[in-house]
Design brief:
- With 578 residues, the chain is of the alpha/beta class.
- Among the domains are: 140-340, ATPase, nucleotide binding domain (Nucleotidyltransferase, domain 5, 2-Layer Sandwich), CATH 3.30.420; 380-577, DHBP synthase.
- 36% of the residues lie in helices and 20% in strands.
- The longest helix has 29 residues, at 279-307.
- It is globular, with a radius of gyration of 23 Å.
- The N and C termini lie far apart (50 Å).
- The relative contact order is 0.12.
Length: 578
Amino acid sequence: MYILGINAYHGDSSACIYHNNNLIAASEEERFRRIKHWAGLPTEAIDFCLQEAGISLKEVDYITVSRNPWAKFEKKIFHTLKNRVSVKAVLNRGANSLKINKIKDEIAEKLGYQPEEIKAELKLIEHHRSHMASAFHISPFEEAAILSIDGMGDFTSTMRGTGKGIKLKVIDSVSYPHSLGILYTTFTQYLGFPHYGDEYKMMGLSPYGQPNMVDQIKNEIIHFKKNGLFELNGRYFRHFKEGVNMSWEGGAPFVDSIFSNLFIEKFGPARQKGEPLTQYHKDLAASVQQVTEELIFHMAEDLYQKTGLVNICVTGGVAQNSVANGKLIQNTSFKRLFVPPAGHDAGTATGSALYLYHHELGKPRGDFKVEPYTGISFQNEEIENILQKREIGFDKMEDEALMDKVVDQLLDAGVVGWYQGKAEFGPRALGNRSIIVDPRREDAKALLNEKIKKRESFRPFAPSILKEYVSEYFEQVDDVPFMEKVFDIKSEKYTVIPAVTHVNGTGRLQTVDKKVNPRYHRLIEKFYEKTGVPILLNTSFNENEPIVNTPEHALECFLRTKMDMLVLENIIVDRSKK
């Protein structure tokens, strides 16, 4: 049985292909289109998945879509009539729903098939059920509580439930327009970060401030309810009355400003592009981050009290808040936390397929696997051909000699592009599409921003650490394979790894397991042998664009920046030899 799962006409469009319970491939459309958070029909990702599976669209048995326009239909109608939501917003949503219902025919047309050739049965899976399945069904847990939180999907912003074996059970939910994700986005926009997906910038800014506005936000804007859920004060947000004006012209998703006039009256003028970040802005970011954490813990602890389960899966766009994830076990009664590699909306492609296969069709789950590497890959011969056509000089080396050379470059203040294996599925670079630097360098952030990233100075860089050494460097010990949690770094290590120690003494770590990524593990091990530090600074391989997907993308990024060395599988392009 082949299941093609997709997230379409929504930010972070994506596709995956399963053969029974085996994930063959998964990728985000942005990696092919080169437009961040690309929204629309993910035809390039679909085509890639079919090629990886070695099948045609005719051989697919089910197409699952992580949207169901009929979910909470009565609530949608009631909200529209009650609030007299703008005609434009209603028409946009209606057009989007029609596209979902015709999606099978559109896929056939875009990929060059006649609709009648496609035998696949179309299944529309509610957005948050897809999120829940994307986490629980790939988790190591036989039974767990599940918390899904994002901006909004199918008129729901939060869903709580449980998973047991192959079945999911929904306990309760929060309906739009009340949304923690929208609250976080609103403040992100207010602080002058207007682009879709900019929320991580406010999270990175928050440690520079003092959370001195927590009470104001909790008293005026958000209410923590006794039932473990929450409500927003609609007067502070435009979307309660006007809807959220979303568009994706050219594939790039855009969300209009959500904060209302009252919001401006209470918090002052919004920060404009180019204006300095004041201490007030930093304090506000810190306050919103703390409120967000407290609300997540509030919902999670109540879920524990309702279920008595010790395991929890957290998913949805808000599950990308790695700071909150790193604190959840310490602040609730849960003992173990699992966050999937693609907790954001791209992951609902896999979730919709898993929900169908396990929950609806009753098929058993397989053994737990850590598998974030599901994207495109290239062989050495293909890479050599690309470089030869471009008349780019290179050296080809066996692994041990190559890693010696790479580590020596790092020790010489080098910035190295590291490209290997299958691309990661999810927003984090996990050693296959990474830029790496010596974490001991105090000037590493300046080096990276000068040579490549050119990003805000307050944003941290992450440590990839050999799994077996976590306890030596971090206060908490856990498997963090997807860089999904922020932990406290031991104070005596601040000066040892200053490049990956954030201003508040934390780091968003990735634990690197030899069994999961042996080549990246060996590279870090080689660095450890020469320095005594089992860590590399790891940041995504890109420059204000989606993470590189192909060798051509990596080469173009190398050529237009001041990166010192490019590694493509066993091939090295050394700038000093150009």
